[in-house]
Design a protein that fits this description.
Length: about 450
Amino acid sequence: MTQEFTIQCPQCGTLYNDLQEVCPYCGEPQPAAGPENPVFPADFPDDDAIPPREEDVLFDEPEPALYDDEAGYADDPFAEDDIFAVAGPPVEQVTQDEYLPPDYGDDYDEAYYDEAGGWAEPEPYLPDDDLAGYDNLPPVAPEFEPDEADVEFETAPKRLRFRRVALGCLGFLLCAGLLYGGITVMAVRSGLQERAQLAQDESQERFQKGQALLAENSIELAIAEFERAVKLNPTFREARDALREAQRLSKLQPTPTSQTRSQAAADIFVQAETQFNAENWADAALTLSQVRDLDPDFKPDQVAQMIFEANRNLGQSLLNPQDVESALAAFEQALAEQPGDSGVSAQVDKITLYLQAIQAEDARTAIQSLRKLYKTDAQFLDVQAQLQQAYRRFGDELGDQGDWCAAQTQYTEANAIHPDRALQAKIETSGQRCQGGSAGQARISTATPVPV
């Protein structure tokens, strides 16, 4: 059936029956419902008075119920056709104070909270008599003592950890030593290669200068330049061939007279003086030797003094670990002119000891020579580093032989020259091994004399 609505919203036109303060659809305030506010005019015909059309008869018939219990829901206000129907009057709002009993109150109103004074202090906690003096009780002894095997098992990882750390430190020191040794070897090799390259370059310059002198018919000077080129680079075949050719040309020339030799010597001497004043000691010594060979009677005392000074200064300029052999040759040339010079003799002795040490095949012989040189002149070249290295090497050899006491002595001597962490570690290690086998070490040390 069709239900008639009594109220209509003047804003949106929504139809409804129950009294509402606002429209349930648009929220617009609604006037009170009554006869003065009808939904339809009074003379509006009722739906029942209008005869239904034939095409609407089927739609007015109720839908047959699918189940027996659906018949009671034919007038359900929430049916699909009545989309604006309301279930009933609104539910009355009820507050908490209305449904709680009047004598009900929260716990805090009686025990802890005071409306006038606020929150009250909580009562102090008083322990039971059973817990009084609990803090003063003695500790409880364990029911059993730990087994020695358990203690050893617990301490074993600590000892193992210490051994791993010690082995790691030794491995790090060994790697550092190998790295340092490799860098040193590479540096020495690079220095030797650079020295060889410089010698080859100087030899080439001497060869070209000799060729120019030979073209000017200065055969003697050309021979001297070729000889110098061959001495600097013995594998320079072109220089050797040019030297032989210059010597052959020199033999073909007629023997000069005394006056001719003196004039040639005077010309060469002028060139030697220029080189001497420019501190070109190697060229000056060579040119002065040519003057003497050409005419021994030409200013013999002055030429001899200049040759001595040129060779002495040349040796002093070459006094470094890379050119020590050339320095020795220059000092020996100076001693040939003045054998009694103490300064040059001392330099020759020190260079001889140095060469004996670095050319020695075993560390023992090197230590003996280096110790003499160290006592004579501790600042001579790199004698300190060489002596320390010799002590270290000899200590390693003794350690390989099992003579740890003697090895400790060598490491101590090396560390006294220049303290080093690696040497200190070797001293401690060899000392521990020496104390561990002192009886056998004494026999080995007696049979192995050690230079000190």
